[in-house]
């Protein structure tokens, strides 16, 4: 019902094109404008001028601001509600958000600890109490807004709009996953590791899309994405990553595109889907992922979210 519930309103499907096209245009411009430029080196120079925390804020704050742009557009242009953009349930389920956030935070901390134990030479202690304390405040303020913007844009606004337009579930799932991956194409990681890293980004988008469709809401995706970026930024940074941060550790190993890129997609994400499916008793996978968007009558509208 996450997509179907919008049939209750008179939706102008053209209104779903404005924000995605504007954002994608910005991404295309950003990509071509950085061709031939060593983005990692550019970020190093920026860091020398305004500092690590200043650079982090400069990169993340615009995306955090766009979160409010999406909500404003949803409320005042499309006459929609935050609840409908977020979930098919009667109200936003914060327990789902916190469960997903906590689960992925635990896994991220555990895998980082294992990596450090297995190859301590790949890391150096980067912890500076004062700078770290300031970064913690900035990270908790900005990163959840940044990740929420991406979720509300791709798994909310775009997935719902494409679902209504195509009357399918699989088309918005595939398209939004691909576009989510393409959004990261200008990241320093892509320059360092090559286009093979795009499999990880697109695969992550696919995983988040499956979460949204199977759970009939954004809550699990919101929690996972926030934990992935926030906890990761607090724990580890590197000279070639998109986020330069005052983290606890710094990865000084030479990055390479190897089988590790595919481990989350092929192993970890399927295990997470199994855990979520068991906890929330998901069923009817074929219909929820590949079924059509069917008209629903007035009586069904009254039961949405209950």
UniProtKB/TrEMBL annotation:
Alphabetical UniProt keywords: Hydrolase, Membrane, Metalloprotease, Protease, Transmembrane, Transmembrane helix
Residues in CAAX prenyl protease 2/Lysostaphin resistance protein A-like domain copies: 133-231
Keyword Hydrolase set for record: yes
RNA-binding recorded as keyword: no
One example GO MF annotation: metallopeptidase activity
Domain of life: Bacteria
Stretches that traverse the bilayer: 12-32, 52-76, 97-119, 131-149, 170-187, 193-213, 220-237, 257-278
InterPro entries linked to this entry: Rce1/LyrA-like_dom
Name recorded for this polypeptide: CPBP family intramembrane metalloprotease
Organism (species): Flavobacterium difficile
Taxonomic path: Bacteria, Pseudomonadati, Bacteroidota, Flavobacteriia, Flavobacteriales
């Amino acid at each position: 019902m996450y997509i179907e519930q919008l049939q209750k309103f008179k939706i102008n499907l053209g209104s779903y094109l404005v924000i995605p096209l504007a954002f994608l245009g910005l991404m295309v411009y950003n990509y071509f404008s950085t061709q031939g430029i060593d983005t990692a080196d550019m970020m190093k120079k920026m860091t020398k001028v305004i500092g690590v925390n200043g650079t982090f804020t400069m990169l993340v704050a615009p995306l955090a601001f766009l979160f409010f742009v999406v909500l404003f557009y949803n409320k005042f242009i499309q006459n929609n509600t935050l609840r409908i953009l977020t979930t098919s349930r009667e109200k936003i389920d914060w327990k789902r958000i916190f469960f997903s956030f906590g689960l992925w935070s635990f896994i991220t901390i555990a895998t980082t600890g294992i990596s450090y134990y297995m190859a301590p030479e790949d890391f150096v202690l980067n912890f500076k109490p004062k700078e770290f304390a300031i970064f913690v405040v900035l990270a908790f303020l900005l990163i959840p807004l940044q990740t929420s913007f991406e979720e509300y844009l791709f798994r909310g606004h775009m997935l719902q709009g494409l679902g209504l337009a195509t009357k399918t579930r699989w088309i918005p799932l595939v398209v939004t996953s691909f576009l989510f991956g393409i959004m990261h194409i200008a990241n320093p990681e892509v320059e360092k590791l090559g286009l093979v890293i795009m499999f990880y980004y697109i695969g992550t988008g696919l995983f988040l899309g499956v979460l949204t469709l199977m759970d009939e809401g954004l809550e699990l995706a919101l929690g996972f994405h926030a934990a992935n970026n926030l906890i990761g930024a607090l724990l580890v940074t590197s000279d070639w990553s998109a986020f330069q941060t005052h983290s606890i550790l710094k990865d000084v190993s030479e990055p390479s595109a190897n089988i590790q890129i595919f481990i989350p997609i092929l192993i970890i994400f399927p295990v997470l889907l199994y855990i979520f499916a068991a906890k929330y008793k998901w069923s009817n996978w074929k219909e929820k992922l590949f079924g059509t968007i069917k008209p629903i009558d007035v009586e069904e509208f009254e039961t949405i979210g209950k």
